[in-house]
TrEMBL record, chain A:
Record PROSITE patterns: ABC_TM1
Entry membrane topology: Multi-pass membrane protein
GO cellular component assignments: plasma membrane
GO biological process: transmembrane transport
InterPro entries: MetI-like (IPR000515), MetI-like_sf (IPR035906)
Keyword Cell inner membrane: yes
Protein name in UniProt: Putative spermidine/putrescine transport system permease protein
Organism the protein comes from: Rhizobium subbaraonis
TrEMBL record, chain B:
A Pfam cross-reference name: BPD_transp_1
Major site of localization recorded for this protein: membrane
Name of the protein: Putative spermidine/putrescine transport system permease protein
Lineage: Bacteria, Pseudomonadati, Pseudomonadota, Alphaproteobacteria, Hyphomicrobiales
Claim: Cell membrane is one of the keywords in the record: yes
UniProtKB keywords: Cell membrane, Membrane, Transmembrane, Transmembrane helix, Transport
GO biological process: transmembrane transport
Automatic annotation (TrEMBL), chain C:
Domain of life: Bacteria
Species whose genome carries this gene: Rhizobium subbaraonis
One Pfam family of this chain: ABC_tran
Membership in a protein family: Belongs to the ABC transporter superfamily.
UniProt cross-references to Gene3D superfamilies, sorted A to Z: P-loop containing nucleotide triphosphate hydrolases
One Gene Ontology term of the molecular function aspect: transmembrane transporter activity
GO biological process terms, semicolon-separated: quaternary ammonium group transport
Lineage: Bacteria, Pseudomonadati, Pseudomonadota, Alphaproteobacteria, Hyphomicrobiales
InterPro entries: AAA+_ATPase (IPR003593), ABC_SmlMolc_Importer (IPR050093), ABC_transporter-like_ATP-bd (IPR003439), ABC_transporter-like_CS (IPR017871), Mo/tungstate-bd_C_term_dom (IPR008995), P-loop_NTPase (IPR027417), Transp-assoc_OB_typ2 (IPR013611)
Name under which the protein is recorded: Putative spermidine/putrescine transport system ATP-binding protein
Residues of the ABC transporter domain: 12-242
Keywords from the UniProt entry: ATP-binding, Nucleotide-binding, Transport
Length: 261, 294, 371
């Protein structure tokens, strides 16, 4: 590549990178704003919005709700999605392909269409504003992520190890517990993480099936944004960003250490 | 004294038995499929049903939808804006993904991080960030003013919506393109050059066609996700950048008109699936590509 | 793990076993009996059903029809984890997330064997394969040969009466393979376990086995020790598959109890005759023939075939010649050191006695499967 096109490409990528990172770069300083305003650049420095988040029962309650729902969703979606991944990768090729296509659809159905459908069903069945309602909807939305993560590890898993374990005297469940599961664990764990984040971050369906008594964190953030200019949202965003970064970096480091031995 | 594999081998490749096999591993997917049936298929079926039956049986909701110039304009705008977002993402993503394949290991890690880090910011918060960036007193206009240029109206305009959506969807364009480019054998380019092709010509005639499956995949994902976008247009857009999703929401939540809301939803759904059906064969080309041997 | 308290080897009886995959028949009416403590090798071309047979014994697949007994008891329907059979795979199949020690301990843990006894058995098994110093390593820190030795220890540590091995040395280089062959043979002698061994490599089969079962097209063509198979092949396929040979074909007549075959105008006599209606062919082993210059060293009653030397290779213990006969057949002859030497292009006469060849029924499929 010529030098000029190299420089051009480099500058272009820098701009794209800035575009990608712009929201993060804006939200973090905004969370330390000392004024109740979202005008940029923020004025002064203060911890008050973090303070506000940790003392305001509304914010804390929505955090607790989201955490509870996302935890249950992660467990359920990981279980169902892992089972489904076994089904997809080990069924006859045609069945497997069909099952995969079916189970991935939640990713492509437009959010609002799905949301009004679920809303309609929940109105009839009394699930609006219930933890169970959130859990069902979010688990369905999270299963594709688990399916993709787990079937990726299943595809590289050497099934002959299962045959070997059986020849050594291990029954089906023992084989799964002692050989298959430990070896696909990275896929299962990243599936669980994806499921948790999917639920924790889900807003569209949540906006429809929420009630004044059961709000999740994204719903709370959304209503805060539409109500007034409150930098607490930026503080929440920063906290979540740090938590996610921590989990992912920790996961990568553990994965690297496991990979080395 | 080696022996050829018997010719029967090819035909023997265990064709799946047609009859229903209760021991087939596929049954393990049953719980997930059941949940999907309850929380996805059934709700969508209800929406379809209501679009044809409320307030009374018939096609009146669809006649209303396609008969109203306002709705047709929104439908058209939804497609046009999605097209712009797809184009903008493609223009940003293609060189970026290409750069990812040519830089060294450390720089590549940084470039990949730049793609992934936006995901770590909560979706709603990200849209808030764009409000901060695009508003009249926002970052972009401050910079413009600082440069002595006149500020631009971005918030509550279509341009603002496109910028915000592009940032949110860009990773979905970069990653598929990158994964295809990664597998392109760059020796093909050298071969073309050795045959006398100019660098740009070789790039356009050899590299670009080989990268197309990734482009198709990325474009279709971004376009489909754009069609259904809701939060970003709702927060960044104004009355003249309303997209179909907002109309659906408005019909159902504010006007309680399930029939009309449902009909709009069905239109969106059908458009999505038609696009997917058209795009699936394009993306499948990926498997017939020449790949670099490891 | 000393020989005295070991489980004695188990016998295997397979009768009329067939295995079908859809319409394709991988095994047809296979009969195979293996004696307790025997080292039996399954030898045959690719796709002949060796692995399928092993999988049936191990319980990885089930027969479509027929019977299968191990140690005198039918094991039909018994899942593999209840068969108590050791299996060594070509691809090692060590568990990558367990150390060598834990890999070998795995079958003992499954059998609920206590810590102390387990540790002792693991150590013994690893010592047997000379891997005791590697107990703390992980499989990806071992060479292929080391991995296979660990796999062998793991398959033997629970004292199975039967050990199955499917081309266990297939992925290793020649030196290592030869050394491990001797190790396997030693272990077999020490333990008295029944070994069933699959290989492509006939030399390996000859080194290791008490008896060899030659597979072809999903059936056993012949069972016997190396000498029987080489000197008295039951079929043309076995004759051609084991060792080198020249097949001579021509119009055949029975003259006074012997068979006379005319090859490119020359009459060749072979002792005896074959039963059945198939055309007889003559199988000639390379070291049973002697090369002469034309017209020299003629002995009464010997067959003579003239041809042109096409290839002459010095092989240390003598020379190996390819001789092109008038009908286009290429004959292989081995001459010991000291025999007359020939150069490419020379005319030579191949001499052999009627009793030194084998008469076999012609079978076109033997050629097809061997090309
Ligand atoms: N699962 C299966 N489905 C269909 N056909 C199969 C299956 N397993 C084996 N076969 C066929 O059965 C025949 C015998 O296979 P087998 O693996 O026993 O051969 P083999 O003698 O072990 O050959 P190799 O020396 O190449 O390992 C082959 O033609 C093979 O294609
Ligand atoms: Mg085999």
């Amino acid at each position: 590549m010529q030098l000029s096109s190299r420089i051009f490409l480099g500058l272009f990528c820098l701009l794209v990178a800035i575009l990608l990172l712009a929201p993060t770069l804006v939200v973090i300083p905004m969370s330390f704003n000392s004024n109740k305003s979202l005008a940029f650049p923020p004025a002064g420095f203060s911890w008050q919005w973090y303070d506000n988040f940790f003392t305001n029962p509304e914010w804390l309650l929505s955090l607790r709700n989201s955490f509870l729902i996302a935890t249950v969703v992660a467990i359920l979606a990981t279980t169902l999605g892992t089972l489904a991944a076994f089904g997809v990768t080990r069924a006859a090729a045609r069945t497997g392909g069909l099952l995969r296509a079916i189970l991935i659809t939640p990713m492509v159905v437009p959010g609002v269409v799905l949301a009004i459908g679920i809303y309609a069903v929940y109105l009839d069945t009394g699930l609006v504003g219930t933890v169970a309602g959130f859990v069902f909807a979010h688990t369905m939305l999270a299963i594709p992520f688990v399916l993709i993560a787990v079937s990726a590890s299943l595809e590289v898993f050497d099934r002959r190890l299962e045959t070997a374990a059986a020849s050594l005297g291990a029954g089906k469940l023992t084989v799964f517990r002692t050989v298959t599961l430990p070896l696909i664990l990275p896929g299962v764990l990243s599936g669980a993480l994806f499921a948790f984040i999917t639920s924790f971050d889900e807003i569209i369906v949540a906006l429809f099936i929420t009630s004044p008594y059961l709000k999740t964190l994204p719903v709370q953030i959304y209503s805060s944004i539409t109500r007034d200019a409150d930098p607490t949202v930026a503080a929440v965003g920063t906290l979540l960003f740090l938590a996610t970064s921590f989990i992912i970096v920790a996961g990568l480091l553990i994965g690297m250490r496991r990979g080395r031995t | 004294m080696s022996a050829l594999p018997q010719t029967d081998n090819q035909t023997a490749g265990g064709r799946p038995a047609r009859r229903l096999n209760l021991r087939d591993a596929g049954w393990l997917a049953a719980p997930a499929v059941l949940l999907l049936a309850a929380v996805l298929v059934y709700p969508l079926a209800i929406i379809v049903l209501r679009s044809f039956s409320e307030p009374e049986p018939g096609l009146q909701n669809y006649i209303w939808f396609f008969g109203s110039p306002v709705n047709r304009a929104v439908l058209q705008r939804t497609f046009v804006l999605s097209g712009w977002v797809t184009l903008a993402s493609l223009i940003c993503a293609y060189p970026y993904a290409y750069a990812m394949t040519v830089v060294g290991k450390n720089l590549r890690l940084i470039l990949i991080l730049c793609v992934l880090v936006p995901f770590w910011l909560s979706g709603v918060v990200r849209t808030l960030a764009w409000v901060i960036l695009l508003q009249d007193s926002g970052v972009i206009n401050s910079i413009l003013r600082g440069l002595g240029l006149s500020p631009v109206k971005l918030i509550r305009t279509q341009l603002g919506v496109v910028i915000g959506m592009t940032q949110v969807l860009l990773p979905f364009m970069i990653l598929p393109i990158y994964s295809v480019m990664k597998g392109i054998d760059t020796r093909l380019l050298q071969a073309a050059r050795s045959l006398g092709a100019k660098p740009w010509r070789a790039f356009l005639q050899i590299y670009v066609p080989l990268s197309l499956p990734g482009v198709y995949a990325g474009a279709i994902i971004v376009f489909i996700l754009s069609l259904g976008f809701y939060i970003t247009p709702a927060l960044l857009g104004g009355p003249r950048s309303t997209m179909l999703s907002s109309l659906v929401q408005n019909q159902v939540l504010s006007l309680l008109n399930w029939g009309r809301g449902g009909a709009m939803g069905v239109v969106l759904l059908v458009a999505t699936f038609i696009l997917l059906a058209i795009a699936a064969p394009l993306m499948r080309q990926k498997h017939t590509q020449t790949r670099r041997e490891k | 793990m000393n020989a005295t308290n070991r489980t004695p080897g188990a016998s295997i009886d397979i009768r009329k076993a067939s295995k079908r995959y859809g319409k394709f028949v991988a095994l047809r009416d296979l009969d195979l009996s293996i004696r307790p403590g025997e080292f039996m090798t399954l030898l045959g071309p690719s796709g002949s059903g060796k692995t399928t047979t092993l999988n049936l014994i191990a319980g990885f697949t089930e027969v479509s029809s027929g019977s299968l007994e191990i140690g005198g008891k039918s094991v039909l329907g018994l899942p593999s984890h209840k068969r108590n059979i050791g299996v060594v795979f070509q691809h090692y199949a060590l568990f990558p997330h367990m150390s060598v020690g834990r890999n070998v301990a795995y079958p003992l843990t499954l059998r609920g064997i206590g810590r102390a006894e387990r540790d002792g058995k693991v150590r013994h098994a690893l010592e047997m394969v000379k891997m005791a110093d590697f107990a703390h390593r992980y499989p990806n820190e071992l060479s292929g040969g080391q991995q296979q030795r660990v796999a062998l220890a793991r398959a033997l540590v629970f004292d199975p009466p039967l050990l199955l091995m499917d081309e266990p040395l297939g992925a290793l280089d020649k030196k290592l393979r030869e050394w491990l062959q001797l190790e396997i043979k030693r272990i077999h002698r020490e333990l008295g376990t029944t070994f069933v061994y699959v290989t492509h490599d006939q030399e390996e089969a000859l080194v290791l086995s008490d008896r060899i079962a030659v597979f072809n097209g999903g059936q056993v063509e012949q069972i016997g020790n190396g000498r029987e198979l080489y000197d008295h092949p039951a079929t043309l396929f076995v004759g051609r598959f084991i060792g080198e040979s020249t097949v001579l074909r021509g119009k055949a007549d029975i003259v006074g109890g012997d068979t006379v075959v005319s090859i490119a105008g020359t009459k060749i006599v072979a002792s005896g005759k074959i039963s059945g209606h198939a055309a007889p062919v003559i199988l000639l082993r390379p070291e049973r023939a002697v090369l002469h210059r034309p017209g020299t060293g003629v002995v009464d009653g010997e067959n003579r075939l003239s041809g042109i030397v096409e290839e002459a290779i010095y092989v240390g213990s003598g020379s190996k010649y390819d001789i092109r006969l008038k009908d286009g057949t290429t004959a292989v002859v081995r001459s010991p050191l000291g025999a007359p030497e020939f150069a490419i292009g020379d005319t030579a006469e191949i001499a052999f006695r009627p009793g030194d060849v084998t008469l076999l029924a012609d079978d076109a499929s033997a050629d097809i499967t061997l090309t």
